[in-house]
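Case study B.
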Amino acid sequence: MSDSTVPASNPPSGPPSNPHDWLRRQRRWSWYEIGFWVLAFVPFFFFPTYLTLASSIAITALFALSVDLVLGYAGIITLGHAMFFGLGAYSAGLITKAGWGEPLTGLLMAGAFAAFIGFLSSFIIVRVQHLALLMITLGLGFLTEELANTMSWLTGGTDGLQGVDVWPVFNTFEFDLWGYTAYSYALAVLFIGLLVARRIVHSSFGLSLRGVRENLTRMPAIGSPYRRHLQIVYTISAGMAGIAGALLTHTTETVSLDSLSFQRSADVVVMLILGGTGRLYGAILGAVIFMVARDQLADMNPQYWYFWIGLLLMAVVLFMPNGILGGLARLVKGRG
Amino acid sequence: MGVGETVLETSAISKKFGSLEVARDVSIALPRGARHALIGPNGAGKTTLINLITGQIKPDSGRIALEGMDITGLPVAARVRRGLTRTFQINTLFPDLTPIEAVTLAVCEREEISSQFWRPLTAQTAAIDEAFGILKQLRLADVATQTTRHLAYGQQRLLEIALALATRPKVLLLDEPAAGVPKDESAMLFNVISALPEDMTILFIEHDMSIVFRFATQIIVLVSGGVLVEAPPDEVRNDERVREVYLGHSHAH
Amino acid sequence: MIGNLAVVLFDGVAFGMLLFVLAVGLSVTLGLMNFVNLAHGAFAMLGGYVTVMITRELGLPFLWSLPAAFIVAAVVSVAFERTLFRRLYGAGELNQVLFTIGLVFVSAATAAYFFGTGQQPIQMPSFLQGATEIGGLRFGSYRIFLIIIALVITGLLVAGLEYTRFGAQVRAAVDNQRAAKGLGIDVDTIFAITFALGSGLAGLGGALAIEIVGLDPSFGFHYLVYVLIIVAVGGLGSIRGSFVAALVLGICDVGGKYFVPEIGAFLIYLLLIAILFVRPQGLFGKR
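Model:
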């Protein structure tokens, strides 16, 4: 319906900014983003002893990213997303045990399996809300954990999966003890994951998700088949979480039951609140802060960790409900 | 104005909540291009009737037909896709989206391109242009990139209508479009409404009688869930029963 | 075999009754104010530790500690409600969940700091120890006591809700908060009192639980899951719902562990998902 007498490149008169320009600006890469990715290379040069921690942070960040898509953007509060992480982890491990140790294809296969299970569960997920939804995600998570525990002939049960043998990446990069390969691998996959998430979020699909989160009642009133949208994002998110799980398997060459644990599901939600939901980088920042803090405080009594993280959680919810990134964003903008 | 084809028709719609009858045997027919007003005292069931017609509530009995097709069993979104759209009495907007985003969203949903998660929004130029055009039509172009929660109330009411227009409705149900809007602005709002295409069928709920008599070609008076009178404005103005309902009501307070 | 079945059923009922006492407060306050208070588990734990302190440090008998557990939990919970929780009433479910989970973390760490991470032993009065013989079968005396207490509480709750003015106001507020306010009901005070009662019951439940399942700092988390299942499946704001759901869960849990230990828990979660999918508002909930 544009005015055909006005050439498309001329902004229409009157309004302060052309909507196309404004929308383009929304998806531009900010200096902070670029800065973050530059900083991501720092561990290689300045903290080589921390490379294993760095790669586990990258893996957790990818997992947190996947949860941000459903929680931060679509508004589905889930306390059981670790089920997809774990499913990806176990399938990656089982694929190597079946004889195929190539990491990249293993990653994709594990992700596909997790996505498939995500797709199946999405039929239930999109039909419930509030407490029932929370309990169902919780229930599905516990269910999967129980299943893995019981099927110990397949999963190794509490002992975990043994004998996971991963081939070198691109057939040249062996997984070394220092963690150079592991971190490069994890960081690269995280980057690709972020690119995918970015694409999704800045598409018309991402706009629909925000619509669902902002006002669910209005969505059917504009003719939106929003349940279908939610199923799509839930499936993609499950796949991403599965890939993160598979990354863990490849970089540590083990799989254990805690990849499916409620603890993992709860931790990732805590990370999202810390960093800020619905911002993608909030998920990554939250993961970094949480994991670094836990690593530094791990030497201390684990009880102290719970005390401080609990206190931090309460403080963030009370005083910075948009998370640390939200608080920073407000500082930078100057006003709310 | 004359006898046109019936675009929206309800046949004996009834609904009870427990023992409370909110809709009693309501049968109305809207011809193409209608400018009908739905009036009645508070609690008469006007919004409920709109909820029933749009599918937000299921009737206990009766039929609803859009362009001759039975839509009684269809969910809300399906009716919208067939051309039946409503606005809400209380703003039901997307607080953190900007008007351009909100209306583009509605356009994309209509065009069924909302699932394209691999294509940047900025590539959907036709949708954005159309959305901006609608915003211009509703005098919202200047605030197109301002967050909805920061808009003036009157502008938000206009955005309500913009979202509805983005669905390209054949039948538009406006639930008190000028609710809460100061007198001078509501006139502007109704000017916008009267500028809508002639073949669009409109039913609006309104309390301000001056607006009703100015814009409506037919008035439906709803009382306690049932249709009391349906007639052109002059007849309604002079109808004894209508007077009683309104005057009697004010006596009770 | 029938004997076994009877004892398992009995144990299941006793466990269910314990869960009911723990859960009913959360169901009512969730139904009343829609505030997701996961710290409910922490208040239960508090009641347990109060009992431990009273019986160990003060040397008072176990039965005296029960009202103390109730009162302390009630008072502490209202203090939190008045100062912190009410700031979050409009903050959305996610924020409420995370804030109260943070509180559970903090309380678990605090409990570990003061009491250590081990189980807390406790001394029962002699008439509650051992078993009582009924109809040729031996039933745990403590469990009989538990069932009786829970039934008394249920009776008091139902009677209170049905026949007192306060109860009528609570029911009105659960049904339609705005209308209740419009009728002049002081919803704010109602909520504070109900919250205190509910958390007090949680504390009492925590005290009663020590003998059956033990007490350690992870109690708040572990039993929170049970409580949430009961509240969701029973339906928010429904005492009857909590009672039925708690009974079913208790019997299934104990029965599952006894008869089908491999898949018992799995079946419970499956049942939970199935029920909530078919009836998201819970068995006896509305909306």
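The mean pLDDT of chain C is 88. The remaining cases will be described in the next quarterly update.
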